[in-house]
Amino acid sequence: MTTLAAFAAALALLGAPGKVDVIKATDLQGKPVEIRTAGKITAVIFISTQCPISNDYNERMKALYNEFHGKGVQFVFLNANSTESSAEVAEHARKHAFPFTVYKDVNNVEADRFSAEFTPHVFVIGKNSEVIYRGAIDDSRPADRVTKTYLKDVLNAALEGKPLPVTETKAFGCTIKRVKKST
Q1: Peptide bond into 120 cis (omega under 30)
Q2: 29 assigned to some structural domain
Q3: I need a surface site. Which of 20, 58, 99, 154 has the fewest CB within 10 A?
Q4: What CATH number does residue 84 fall under?
Q5: Residues 98, 88: Cα–Cα separation, whole Å
Q6: Per-residue pLDDT tens digits for 18-49
Q7: Any idea what DSSP says for residue 182?
Q8: Is residue 182 part of a domain?
């Protein structure tokens, strides 16, 4: 088994999807969108309007987007909380002057597929559409206490074609408020 195949198998055991060719979401006007990942490095970040931990990351997410979007990294910001309406998400994005688009993950389709648990929760998809990182943006809720910049380091390594410094970290934040499933 090749190293990449072993890594993909290990991630599958941890609940991350294997190959992610398309991310399906809904724009804030209710229109379905499909975001293709092939040939791109894609950072998928689950966020919230109401979670104070997610909101503590707003400036860091904007900085990461501004630093890496121009280098070819595709960002997909998903709000999967059933308790937060599209209108609320749009107002939150406007209020915080997000330079990126936020999509709704209606019925938690992508949150379930990625096994996303928290806001924020990050998944990086490599150019081959395989999940190469899952976890936290960094190691500290307070920005002034960050010592490890996981997402930034993973994106830099992926862009440079170097080995990733880390493939999984423990995400932390508020739990995603999922749609109640009928039994």
Answers
A1: yes
A2: yes
A3: 99
A4: 3.40.30.10
A5: 14
A6: 799 999 999 999 999 999 999 999 999 999 99
A7: P
A8: no
